[in-house]
Amino acid sequence: MKLRCAAYARFSSDRQSPASIDDQLRQCRDFAVRHGWELLEQHVYRDEAISGAGIDRPGLVRLLEATSRPDRPFDVLLLDDTSRLSRSLADAVRTVEMLRFRGYRIVSVSQGIDSQNDQADVLMTVHGLVDSLYIKELAKKTHRGLEGRALKGLHTGGRCYGFDNVKANDSVR
Known about the structure:
By secondary structure, the chain is of the alpha/beta class. It has helices spanning about 20-35, 60-65, 80-85, 90-100, 120-150, and strands spanning about 5-10, 40-45, 75-80, 105-110, 115. Strand 4 and strand 5 (about 115) form a beta hairpin.
């Protein structure tokens, strides 16, 4: 029997390339073809320029709503890697457990993790922990950079209404 697949892809910020989603989906499509599975285009879900720190992403919400339907629209969820699903360990574990409870198989293509394998829980937890540490470290580095700009008297982001933006010379940065 040919397994029917959905795919979920995400990138985090408007500073990243929208092509990232195409690259992730290409990996998922190639994986499905190699295994003789069918990736259903109507079940390709995506979130563009949305952080994986939260779970309230429109594409992910639509995906989870589809999995709650009684007609089981697909059998397997393909992800390029676990960080696409979530950067929060708690959210990742809850989401994976919910999908598995509903009878869905989850495959993280680039990491070689398949929820049908005995070690999948351990691997997903370890990768989920690494994924959540990444976002915490990124937050610290971002804060450090903003603090440095503020200490130099530079703007730290957002819109400054009532002021004209003037590009600072390179010696101030």
